[in-house]
Each structure stands twice: as structure tokens, then as C-alpha cells.
Amino acid sequence: AQSVTQLGSHVSVSEGALVLLRCNYSSSVPPYLFWYVQYPNQGLQLLLKYTSAATLVKGINGFEAEFKKSETSFHLTKPSAHMSDAAEYFCAVLYSGAGSYQLTFGKGTKLSVIP
Amino acid sequence: DVKVTQSSRYLVKRTGEKVFLECVQDMDHENMFWYRQDPGLGLRLIYFSYDVKMKEKGDIPEGYSVSREKKERFSLILESASTNQTSMYLCASSLGPSNSGANVLTFGAGSRLTVL
Number of residue pairs across A and B with CB atoms under 8 Å? Predict the structure, then answer.
């Protein structure tokens, strides 16, 4: 079965510090990869997606993620955290192989930003 | 922008009640999904639909059913609510095709259900 692992259910950073949220996936074929963000009391919204074009993907709000096939990773980064980045972040993987369509989500990482 | 509307943000029901969660999208999307979200478990897919009157089971369909009579509306039904169905329920839609990397999900704001 396909799986997505987000390391760290809770990450705290100081305002202005680097944000690094980790995501690893299990796959033998190149997947499509997504990061979604959920602000309190809201649904999820797309931050960025990787669809086999450039390996470094830029998203909204200054976030970016790099696809590393050799490490089966798609870590999310932002150079300088802002208070408004406090939210829960979900990595998701879609496999384009045969079989029924299913997007698999990680369990989420809650980001806290300390003033 | 695509809008996915979940009519009930907060519901409190009693054990054994029949519960309907409604979801409507306004951009003619083919695909619709129901997830439940629980702390520490992330999002788990309950049911999805690629077309009107079509439905497919997700990872955790037990205790749930769905209805898609119109393209824009996808309903989640709990035939007899139980306390272990207390959760946040998220509806989503996407344009398709279903196995495309461009198939981005647009989510509703969620329906928080408490079963007493």
C-alpha cells in the first residue's frame, strides 16, 4: 500500500526562522506530490504541487518544496517564518499508475510560530 | 474560484440518529470526495464519486453511505450515528481526469459532528 510519512506531528519555530516540514513517500514510480495547508476552523487549501516538471516547486506565501527521487522526499521549506504561517500542513501523494485513483495524505504537521 | 460549500459547520446528534451531511460545489467538477479528519490520523477517505449516481468506497466506508443525484451535490449519510463517528468531515471536489497530477482538490470548510 502507498504511504506518506510526515516526520514530526508538531514543529515550533521562532518568527523569522527557517521552516522545514518533512515528507517522505513510498513509491516505485514517480508520483504527483502536493502540500496543503489548513488554517484553524477552515478546510484545506493547496500550497503547491509537483507534477514531474521542475524538481523545485514554488508555492504561495513564500513556501517551496524540492522533489528528491533518490530520497523519496518532498520537504516543505520557507526561509523566514511569519506568525500567519501557524497552521497544520499536510503532504499528499497521488500515484499515476494503473488502478483506482486515490490521493493519500500524511497525518499532518502542526506548525507553531513563536514571536 | 471554485467554491465547495458544506451547509452545516457544527452538528450535535444523538446515538442512533440518521445524519445527513451536504456538500455542494459550483464549478461543474466531475469528482467529489468525503474525508474524515481526526487528530493524529490525518485525512481518511470515506467515499468518492467520479460522476452522477456513481460512488466508490474509500479506506473507511463502514457506517457511511453517500448519494450523488446531481453533479454539484454529494451527500454523506450516517444511517445510525455512533459516538466513534464524532469527527470533522471534509468534502472536496476536483475537475479531473481522476489520475492527473493537475487534479487538485478544493475543500469545503468542514462539518464538525459530535455524536452524544
Answer: 54
